[in-house]
Amino acid sequence: MSNRAPIRIVREDGHERIEPTVGGVGTTFLRLLERHGGLWIAWSGGQKTPPRLPFPPGHPCFAMSFVQLGERDVSLYYYGLCNRALWPLMHSMISNCHFNTGHWRQYVLVNERFAERAVAEADSGDALWIQDFHLALTPAKIRARRSDLPIGIFWHVPFPPVELYMVFPWRRELLAGMLGADLVGFHTRGYATHFLDACERVLGAEVDRTRGEVRYQGRLTRALPFPLGIPVDYFEQLAANPKTLERARRIRRALRSEIVVLGVDRLDYTKGILERLLGFERFLDANPAYHRRVTLVLIAVPSRTKVTDYVMLKRQVDETVGRVIGKFSSAGWVPIRYLYTQFGAEELVAHYLAADIALLTPLRDGMNLVAKEFVASHPSDDAVLILSEFAGAAEELTEALLVNPYDADAVAERLREAIEMEPAKRALRMRTLRHKVHENNLERWSANFLHALAGDFALEAHAAPVVSAD
């Protein structure tokens, strides 16, 4: 169950066609359900959708059950509470938070609607796996009606330190909603610890940090780290496809650059795109010998274009790109190729292959799957990953060149280090990274979470009542 389905229904000339969306949680679970079957409850992203849709069309492996959201829901719940309050809060960006009681009320109503659908669809013996902060209240709302169901929720974004979380006006309600689950999953142990701290301080819950357990209102919930993996075989197959390889060669020829640095992100203020540009500018300032030899390809996927903060960010990025290009361009060389678009998986992997270096500088990120996709797309171990210290993936991918994205000098130095790294050292680092990505792939991540969920539900179902004595 998630806020958005991994598809969109496109209507043209009186006909409908279904297109898969690219990236994010949606693509991840699309591949899981295609392999294992099940039911996906989500909003389609549109106003008019069928109540249920077999997928993929023609050869269905699973079904989607669509929750209908109206314009008011989308405006207040999605663009309001989710994008203007919870998203910046979870990324510790308090100055970007906007709290509104009307938005919260609509958030509660939409979570109720998702819970009602889940209760109606779930059979005895089913397990419910809820995804992300859009549906934080749904576990408790389902639990109130169906105590027979194992319920898990995975938090795909960071969880902030309790001192920051405390600014949220509905801090008790959000935590209580999450604790309706038997298992709450996070990308890192640090995020899980922040959640446990909040449960203890905000709710007065009994917390066991060693076991990752919370006791609240007679129920036991565990909060544990499950670092998200990717479908490694999918990216390796794309990287080995002759069409992808030829496309990568064409990209290199078009760039006419000896060294290609790649950045790929949604256009979001958490992704450190401006900081990346400033770091690249500092590199060019400090290393004139690399002028006309290095090009940064910046892919920015349009995102939340109706939210004011994102409109402002795009203007800043456009202006900064223009300024750096104007400052350094010479003799037919343009230092930045800026692509404001969304690519399909094949085109994205072609860009991964065409790049010598990935420069990923989020200011805060739950995981950063682009880092893992880049690694999986380089089976020849011929690339370097530069990754922000503040991405969840940095805890796993320690062989990357880790960097503080707020430090432009450090970003510039890491770029120089990556460019000048000896081939043997580069190969060793990338080979180790690929091993880690293989070891913790998408299948293992999902299996670990579902196995833990089944165990936690059995434990809770047979637990003795908690009796308190004054």
CATH topology of the largest domain: Rossmann fold
Q: What is the overall pLDDT average?
A: 92
Reported for the largest beta sheet, the result is:
6 strands, mixed
DSSP helical segment count: 16
The CATH superfamily of the largest domain is identified as Glycogen Phosphorylase B
Rg from Cα: 23 Å
Structure description:
By secondary structure, the chain is of the alpha/beta class. The protein folds into two domains: 178 residues, Rossmann fold (3-Layer(aba) Sandwich), CATH 3.40.50.2000; 208 residues, Glycogen Phosphorylase B (Rossmann fold), CATH 3.40.50.2000. Helix content is 45%, strand content 18%. The protein has a six-stranded mixed beta sheet with strand order 6-7-8-11-10-9, with helices on both faces. A six-stranded parallel beta sheet has the order 14-13-12-15-16-17, sandwiched between helices. A three-stranded mixed beta sheet has the order 3-5-4. A hairpin with a 4-residue loop joins β9 and β10. α2 crosses α3, α6 crosses α7 and α10 packs parallel to α11. The longest helix has 21 residues. The chain is globular, with a radius of gyration of 23 Å. 45% of the residues are buried. The C terminus is likely disordered.
